[in-house]
Design goal:
The structure holds 2 protein chains of 2 kinds. Chain A is an all-alpha fold. Chain A has one domain. Chain A is about 70% helix and about 0% strand. By secondary structure, chain B is α/β, with parallel strands linked by helices. Chain B folds into 2 domains: about 210 residues, P-loop containing nucleotide triphosphate hydrolases (Rossmann fold, 3-Layer(aba) Sandwich); about 50 residues, no CATH class. Chain B is globular, with a radius of gyration of 22 Å. Chain B starts with a helix and ends in a 5-residue tail after the last helix. The N terminus of chain B is likely disordered. The chains are: A mainly alpha, B alpha/beta. At the A-B interface, helix 1 and helix 4 of A face helix 1 and helix 4 of B.
């Protein structure tokens, strides 16, 4: 960097430059992924929980399932992948961001060349990095258990995963940017459990009891589950599910951008 | 990125080399109805350590956070390296180093990993190994941040603040919670930054820190600067503007101070008193800001 500002008797070092934006964001993403994958509680919710659900629901016969003719593993795996996306994009990210906010990490990184935009981009990419690890682990175990996905639906499934990640990351940031860290810890775990049980993600909305069936289809969890099942079972992604997810993404992102407090 | 380089180039002619690194005029910040910063003015020069000294709640941290672009002022002007901390944030971030009062270190990461990560944000950072050595980070390099002691965290925060070779560094209570060895390592690094031409702005309520480091001290209370000057100037000036003569000597054994006051009174001095020990910056500070607890 050259400039005429070098005539001072004790010139400071030449004007400092930031690392290129992509390198900064990549560094932040790698840092976020590493931190999540090394943290015991985070591993429990992002890796152990979906694995437990996969093996539990597919193998155990305690839970009665109307699989509409599909094998139990074919029926269960797409829903478990949807749960995995929710656990990383929502629960894990909400907790990580809430504690980063409390500890001043968001403020400090905002003063480095990374900035707030880069921090956000790094977080989203970090979530995607963890999801890649989840996808590899879950797919390997599911295939070993006999899962035969509809291969032509994989590009659609990736698209659905990205949209679901956007919706649930926005929800995570909304919670993390508004509530106290301890509150976020409790609420994000509780919400995940409630959505797994009655949110239409693991069990399709139309097989939930009573009024829950109507509600769950309009939840981001139900929409993500239905879209993932449609993509990977070969029946096609229901357009309504995509619309519902996109609507939630827009609403939650708007809310997070309005309400998020950096300190 | 070519766009930001071009932008920097376009701005460079406007930046005057002799202009202060930091200039605040009539700064105002309110929280709710409470005025925390009230028409504050101060400057900080390159190659100098500027201490902002004040009791808790005086508005020091708020002022610094406005300079860092973390808070928006309600009034007044702020120029950081001749630029606006909010509008020109992207240009300033590579050139300004920040050490926050509460650290801002991610608790689940290891110490060295954090420093490496922050250094990755800059095009040509200081070598991490050199900072590790200078600030003694080696003994806890692989310890996660949440297990570090207060002093260890402070040293790591300082390393993160200077790793990008900043032209201006903000250090918010840099040696709080440190043992004497760590403090001296930090002070040495601050002096070295000064001799490299860096503008160092630090807040503190530790008098000895201001006394041993600062070229210029601004005493802040109730959101405004109530006294400014070098440490020597502040020491020479009483709270009410009247000068007083300080005579220093080593007293012989069994010295009777009363004999000295009697002699002074006999020679026409009014209100003569003898204080054992020297007047310190702390005395000046307490004269200026009062002794009330807050």
């Amino acid at each position: 960097m050259t400039g005429p500002a070098t005539t001072t008797p004790a010139p400071a070092a030449p004007a400092q430059a930031a690392a290129p934006a992509l390198r900064r964001i990549a560094a932040q993403a790698a840092f976020e992924s590493r931190t999540i994958l090394r943290n015991g509680e985070q591993l429990l919710v992002t890796i152990a929980l979906p694995l437990f659900l996969l093996v539990g629901v597919a193998r155990a016969t305690i839970v009665e399932l109307d699989t509409a003719g599909a094998t139990r593993i074919d029926f269960t795996t797409p829903g478990v992948i949807a749960v995995a996306i929710m656990s990383t994009a929502f629960t894990s990210q909400a907790i990580a961001t809430a504690f980063d906010r409390r500890n001043g990490v968001l403020r400090l990184m905002a003063t480095t060349p990374l900035g707030r935009g880069g921090l956000l981009a790094g977080k989203v990419l970090g979530v995607l990095g963890v999801e890649v690890v989840q996808a590899v682990v879950l797919t390997a175990v599911a295939v070993a258990l006999g899962w035969r996905p509809h291969l032509a639906g994989i590009p659609a499934a990736i698209g659905v995963a990205l949209l679901g990640t956007a919706a649930f990351t926005a929800l995570a940031l909304l919670l993390a940017g508004v509530l106290r860290a301890e509150g976020v810890l409790a609420l994000s775990n509780l919400l995940l459990v409630l959505l797994i049980v009655g949110g239409g993600v693991l069990v399709p909305p139309d097989r939930l009891p009573g009024g829950l069936a109507q509600v769950a289809a309009w939840l981001p969890s139900g929409a993500l589950g239905e879209a993932m099942r449609g993509a990977l079972s070969g029946s096609g992604v229901p357009p309504l599910a995509v619309l519902v997810l996109a609507g939630w993404t827009a609403l939650l992102a708007w809310g997070a951008s309005r309400l998020f407090r950096w300190q | 990125m070519s766009t930001s380089a071009a932008a920097t180039g376009a701005l460079a002619p406007a930046a005057q080399p002799d202009a202060p690194a930091l200039a605040l005029h009539g700064l105002v910040k309110r929280y709710g109805g409470r005025t925390v910063v009230d028409g504050l003015c101060l400057e900080a020069q390159r190659g100098a350590v500027t201490a902002v000294l004040g009791p808790n709640g005086a508005g020091k941290t708020t002022t610094i956070e406005i300079c860092e672009g973390l808070r928006v002022p309600d009034g007044g002007t702020v120029r950081v390296l001749g630029l606006d901390p909010r509008a020109d944030a992207a240009l300033l971030r590579p050139r300004v180093g920040v050490m926050l009062q509460d650290g801002g270190l991610p608790s689940g990461a290891r110490a060295l990993e954090v420093l490496r990560h922050v250094s990755a944000m800059y095009a040509s950072p200081r070598p991490v190994a050199e900072l590790v050595d200078r600030l003694g980070l080696d003994s806890f390099a692989r310890t996660t941040v949440r297990r570090l002691s207060g002093g260890q965290r402070q040293r790591l925060s300082l390393a993160c603040a200077v790793v990008g070779r900043p032209e201006l560094v903000f250090l918010d209570e840099p040696s709080a919670g440190m043992d004497p060895q760590s403090r001296h390592a930090v002070w040495d690094l601050v002096r070295e930054l000064r001799s490299d031409g860096v503008a160092v702005v630090l807040t503190t309520h530790l008098m000895d820190e201001a006394e041993s480091l600062a070229d210029v001290v601004h005493v802040v209370d109730h959101g405004t600067v109530i006294a400014s000057g070098t440490v020597a100037e502040l020491l020479a000036t009483g709270a009410h503007g009247g000068a007083e003569t300080v005579a220093r000597f080593t007293a012989p054994p069994h010295f009777d101070p009363a004999a000295l006051t009697a002699w002074l009174t006999a020679h026409g001095a009014s209100g003569a008193s003898v204080t054992v020990g020297r007047r310190t910056l702390e005395d000046v500070f307490l004269d200026l800001t009062g002794r009330n607890l807050r």
